Amino acid sequence: MSLADEIVHLKNFKIVLFGAGNNAKPALKYLNDNGIEVAYFVDNDRNIKNIEAYTIHAPEILLTENKSDLRIIITPNFPTYKSIETQLLEMGLRECLYSTHFLCCDDMLDHFGYYDDSIGFCCASFSGFHRTRPVFPYLDNAEATIIDFLQKRKAIFDRVIPVGCAGCSRLRPHNMFGCKIKIINISPYPAICQAKCIYCNVHTNPEYNYKNAKHSQYPKMIIEMIQYLQKNNFIDDDCYFIFAPAEITIMPHKDLLLDVTSKYKAKFLTNAFLFEPKIADSMKKNNSIINVSLDSGTKETFKLIKGYDLFEKVLTNLKKYREYNAFELKYNILPGVNDSDSDIEGIIEILKLLNLDSLHLSFEYNIPLRTAFYPIVKFVAKLKENELSFYFHTPYYTPSQIKDFIELYFNSESSSYYIEKNNSLGEIFKNEYLNDYNGYREYVYRNEIKELLECLDVGKKIVLLGKIHKNQRLVAGIKQLGISIQLPDLTLEESYDAVKDNADIFIVPERRLFKGIKQYVESKGGDSKRLLDIEKYFYSFEPPISFLKNNL
Length: 552
Ligand code: SF4
Ligand code: SF4
What we know:
The chain is an alpha/beta fold. It has 21 helices and 21 strands.
């Protein structure tokens, strides 16, 4: 049943809307459009006096109403929604609450993203915080595609959770009011880019090449979809555009795309090989910004990472962009590759030259965070010394957790362990993997697993639980140590049952599954202290011995 069908019976009640903020007018309109009269508004903020012809009352007025005739609809979204609900429950008005909320995430409400050869709400599966995400494939033309997308979006307001969202930690109760699109993310994969960053597969995989005939119609289609959304008033005036990844300055139909979106604020991810005047105009006119991942502080490292000798040219372009607005300078830390003292000193000089006061630190997601930890600390220390700040993005930790970890490191006895490890990674990269970055990544993973397992007592029999084909990287690392892991195609529980009597340690490959298997083992009378959460290890900062002591 749709929400519109469901609320018909509200006509028999006196309806009061709680909340005079952003959702108030859209809520009023939605209810009126469906033939439901609103009696008045209440709000805790006594500075808001009225909405259209309605006076805003203090919530206490609700206590004077006949409860059996009254229904209160809370207009704000989570988390304000929750605090108002608690307030009304404390006022003894439980029976009067009526929820028009449905389960969704912020992205579903206001996001329209252009990804792969499909469109969608979010980049959850790319960002690593959820395994799947809802996608809406291209249909025959732009209009059919966007209408299909909008209809599925509307179904969410009728409480149908899209396929792909189940289990996502970002689902929250939201209200359906005021749902214009406020973020448009243009992240075309397959992408076009002239750089050859060693950590990126855009230039190595022909499937991702824009010139591939299969993908050539998409840039035009995305422009037509934006034009359709504009014409039908679906885009909020304050809509924010994100152009990432791929290189906007050489994208087919780039001029038309930049013209169609020229009135909106935007973030452009660019390699800055080229200076684009339309981007500069948007920086000045709309306060838009660019985000440039320089990943180097020296000419030599730039060439190694980006594949071209264009360090000076990029710096010249950055100086030109800086005349229009400040921007984000990003540094993707590759342990042992771009974290030498000369690179750190170089990037600090560049920040000063560009009059930017912070560096956007990142690390490569194909490398365990624990491997990138020491270089991150090195960067942070140098930035602090120069009174510069940093911004560190990872979906796995909050910024305050990262700060805590860094402080912990500075007071930690484990520093020498990390310093030594980082130096040896640099040597390994230079001597064995200079032209094989994928090989280097695999080496880093195997090395982390090896270091951990070598700290276990000699003679312990170790098994990896779960489906081997889903855990190839772990399997490769573990096999290298000569450990037996022959459990093809079994669930975690099945594989535990199969080996529980002849193994000492059980490796659990995925952190999100750890709690479930722990409960299972305990329910069978087993010892859950023998379960090793290997993903937790990859994202922990403890040296292997202390990690094992605290987690086994
Ligand atoms: S997968 Fe998660 S973030 Fe993406 S649309 Fe669904 S609930 Fe939102
Ligand atoms: S600039 Fe971006 S898209 Fe281009 S190769 Fe580098 S990481 Fe890939």
